[in-house]
Amino acid sequence: MLQATLDAVDIGVWNLDHRTGAFEGSPIHDRILGCESRPPGWTTNDFLKHVLAEDRQRVQTALDLAAPSQGDFVLECRILRLDGTMRWIEMRGRTERDAHGRPARTMGVLFDITARKDQQAELHANEERFRVLTEKIGDVVWVSDPSIPSVLYVSPGYANLWGRPKEELEQRFESWIDNIHPDDRSRVRRAFAENIDDGTYDEMYRVVRPDGSERWVRDRGWPIGDGARVVGIATDITALKRSEEAQLLLVAELSHRVKNALATVISIAQQTRLESRDAEEFGRIFEQRIRALAHVHGLLAETQWHGASLTGMVAEQLEPYQGDRSARVAISGPDLLLRPKTALLLGMILHELATNAAKHGALSTTDGSVDVSWAVLFESGMRRLILDWTESGGPQVTPPTRRGFGRTLVERGLGYELGGTARLGFEPTGLRARLEIPLPISD
Q1: pLDDT beyond 80 at 313
Q2: In the sheet where 103-112 sits, what is the strand order?
Q3: Cβ pair 350, 309 in contact under 8 A
Q4: CA-CA distance, 322 to 388, in Å (whole number)?
Q5: Which pairing describes strands 329-332 and 369-379: parallel, antiparallel, or unpaired?
Q6: Domains (range + CATH), the chain
Q7: Average pLDDT, the chain
């Protein structure tokens, strides 16, 4: 009955007689070894010949130790069957003694565990691939048992993101929560407890590292198998968060600039309307002024609104009047990167000066010329831009009888907007203007 049961579950039985050295095995035993039938006189040495060389000494030692100690033994080893295929087997045995205490026989069983070993090897390979993967990526991969709770595994990325050794988390589950920013901690603790079982845990929070720096984390977790384990991944999203913050600042700055630009356009429209004789003149002057404003905006856009080149601004405003005579327009001075507010106002002032020169001044004749020069002065820890506009060779100048938009912009706008000063000289030989604008030391 017992033998039939063992045969039914594919377990081989063997019996070693220590007095005669005879070795007996059941048919299942022989089949596991790949034998149709065992030759007569089969001994343990014949069995050991089937054991792989790398395992043979270990098996021999187990058999040698079991006999004198009358102990049980369990071992696993690889064998080569007669057909050359390799199989894993598990052997279990027990030694009995005779009335004089000498080893009498060792009885045991063996069974083929190749399938189990293959599964273990595949599992080990998968675990190794998982380990390599989680160690290569920067994200933190973790496995926990929330019922205890405890962390069963955490990848090396934890040390990089939290700034603390992963052994700390493995020893004390709560350590990862303790190092979350106080403003986020209770929310994350509650979300983990309430949502981890149904796989909807997905939280963003800040981690405070030992040096006081903060990192943003997106942490997600899902139950696996029967739900007794949870696997998760925590990703460093600090760069993304900073990008979002920068985008919000950019939108706010853009809104501010648009409002300022619209206010400037409205002011230009109102002033142009007051000094225009008719709609046609208004349209022409207004378009010119808006184009001048757009040119400065273009220069600022080239530097992502860090500033505009003074040389580029002067050259762009006077380029339409250069003509064929090289001495008609002269420009000299060190190039400066003016801040947006300064560049926008100075660009409009240069446009008004150039337009006035083309309409009434030196640029209204073929012999006239304009010289624009500037320098930066350092006085009492302050910097000032001194820009001189000098016209010559044009018609005789007489002081205007009314104050137009251009003159108002030069004389009043410079002081009101930038804290600078402007002096206009309507000399008979040509208009002279000196602009003084304070500059930040860092520019």
Answers
A1: yes
A2: 23-25, 12-17, 103-112, 86-97, 72-80
A3: no
A4: 18
A5: parallel
A6: 2-116 (3.30.450.20), 137-236 (3.30.450.20), 242-439 (3.30.565.10)
A7: 82
